[in-house]
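## retry 2 of 3
previous attempt timed out at serialization; input unchanged, resubmitting
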Amino acid sequence: MHLSSIVKKLTAVFMLWLVYATAVNANNSIESVRIWPAPENTRIVFDLSNKPDFKYFSLKSPQRLVIDFKNSTNNAELMSAIKADRRVQKIRTSRSKEKGTTRLVLELAEDYRVSVFPLAPAGQYSDRLVIDLYDKNSQPIATYDNSKGKRDIVIAIVAGHGGEDPGSIGASGTYEKHVTLKIAQKLAHLINKKQGLKAVMIRSGDYYVLKFRGSK
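## retry succeeded, writing output
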């Protein structure tokens, strides 16, 4: 047997062993990623096969958020999740020094306040890791001129659910979050037709409202 044939066979055996060892050591996998942009924040959700064992840190110049998933493999199409989000420019993998660790890097447009936390399985969702990016200099919803002693009565309208929270799902696949948003939009239109009244939509798109501004 030629030496080249022996080398090829040994290489093939080693590659098969490497694939097997990786599969055995990894007890978790990143199945998908979802991104929900909102006016003042963006939520990134990683869907996992099991509870995540993770750590994260930030890097500057350029601004990046790095997440290490221990004993995990990545099966997600990372870039396909990015829509027209102004905060997350790219999601990519990177090499970690820790064996069996999958490192994901979020390239960000600027420096944001970051919240990272796991979520247990619920309803149609498996284990998840959630990342919330908050604008540091958020603006109030609206301001009103009261210099003349008169102003509209402001009515806040909250459309329930949104983003990764679909609410109830009908037999034909209708999401409650879409129904509540349409009802809220129609209600706002009716209110704004009345003199002295002004409707403010707390949720105006398909995203989850994390909290009301001004709440503690």
